[in-house]
Structure formats: C-alpha cells, structure tokens
Write a structure and sequence with these properties.
- With 214 residues, the protein is mostly helical.
- The protein has helices spanning 2-18, 26-47, 51-61, 68-81, 85-98, 103-115, 119-132, 137-149, 153-166, 173-183, 193-196, 205-210.
- Helix 2 packs antiparallel against helix 3.
- The longest helix is centred in the N-terminal third of the chain and has 22 residues, at 26-47.
C-alpha cells in the first residue's frame, strides 16, 4: 500500500514540475500587450493615411480599459481627419466633458463648427479661445477666416490688423491680403485690441455645447 502511495505521489510530483506553473497576472499582461499592439498597428495605418484601417484597430484597442480613452481620442481625431464631422463632434463633446479646461479640445470643436458651416458658433468659439489664449495666432487666423466666410469683410479686416500687429511673421497674412484684394473692399478700420478682444458673451459656447445630448 505504501509502495502504491509512493508511486502515485511520484507521478503527481512529476506531472506538476513537467508543466509550466502559471504566473499570477501573466495572462492579463499578455492580453494588455495584444491591445497595445492593436494601438501600434492603428498608429501605423494612421501615419499611412489609411484611416479606415486605423479606425478598425483603434476601436479594437478601446476594448481594453487601460487604453480606452487614449484610443477614443484617436478615433475622434481620425473621424475629424476624414471630415466625418457627424461622428467627430459628439466624441469631442464627450472628451470635453471629461476635461472641460482643455483648450485643444475646444479648438477641435470650434474647427468642426467652422467646417460644418455653423459659422455663428465658430465665431463665438474662436473669440472665446482668443480670450483664453491671446498669444495663439492660429485662433486669430481662424476667426479671420470665419469672418471672411460669413462675408463680414470689415470684421475680418479689423482682426487682420490685429494679426499683423501681434503676429507679423504669420504666414497667412499674405493670403488674407490677397483675398482682400480679390474682393476689392475698403480698408479696414482700426479696432483697439483691449476692447475688441474681450469676450462679448455671457455664457461659454463650450458650456452650451456640453448641454447637447449625444
């Protein structure tokens, strides 16, 4: 009887040492690596401008909780690059709800307003961004472009004067001047910086946007 027990114990012991013993957390680490690889593949497709494939792998990455929000942001960005504003706007709105002070997200929302032809909202958004970041020339340039798109040429010219004064090295000054020449309008009237760059709104356009339902 003792001999049988010894043989059985030997077999069991041999079986245990002959098979790899699972390391705690090792499986989850492998799974995380797989999703991280999905993200890497998506980034490669994005860099190659193969946006549909990038979206496919970003969405796979979103299945991992650790990568969800990073992948979510990249999905929103990819939709924007594809000019799929209908998909992009609610995603940026969600991101802005999570990070209400993020001016980069606000700028993305403002850009979507402009590109979808919601120029009134775009005007308000860029004015607010200029107030928040007066040293960002891109916001000022985009506001000028919005005014020209609205055919509010005088307003566009006024802000162009501001751009020339504050950012004389802007590469877009010449383009704006060429546009003004093409419309053959009157010279812009000077607007005091301190007065005109103050926000002319009581509530934030971005706070209003966050009230929308996705």
């Amino acid at each position: 009887m003792k001999k049988l027990l010894f043989i059985a114990a030997s077999v069991l012991f041999f079986s245990c040492v002959s098979k790899p013993i699972p390391i705690p957390g090792d499986r989850q680490k492998t799974i995380n690596n797989i999703y991280a690889e999905y993200m890497n593949i998506a980034d490669i497709y994005y860099s190659l401008e193969k946006y549909d494939k990038a979206l496919q792998y970003y969405k796979l990455s979103m299945q991992n909780s650790n990568l969800y929000w990073a992948a979510y942001y990249k999905v929103a960005k990819t939709y924007a690059v594809q000019s799929n504003w209908e998909e992009a706007l609610p995603m940026y709105r969600t991101l802005l709800r999570r990070d209400k002070e993020n001016d980069s997200l606000k700028a993305s929302v403002a850009y979507i307003y402009a590109m979808t032809g919601d120029l009134k909202k775009a005007e308000r958004a860029y004015k607010e961004l200029i107030y928040l970041q007066p040293d960002n020339h891109e916001y000022l340039e985009n506001l000028i472009a919005v005014y020209f798109a609205k055919k509010q040429y005088e307003d566009g010219k006024n802000y162009l004067d501001v751009l020339i004064e504050k950012f004389p090295d802007s590469e877009n000054i010449a383009k704006f001047k060429d546009f003004i020449k093409s419309i053959d309008d009157e010279a812009a009237v000077e607007v005091p910086l301190e007065e005109d760059l103050q926000p002319d709104f009581e509530t934030s356009i971005f706070e209003e946007e966050l009230e929308n339902q996705d």
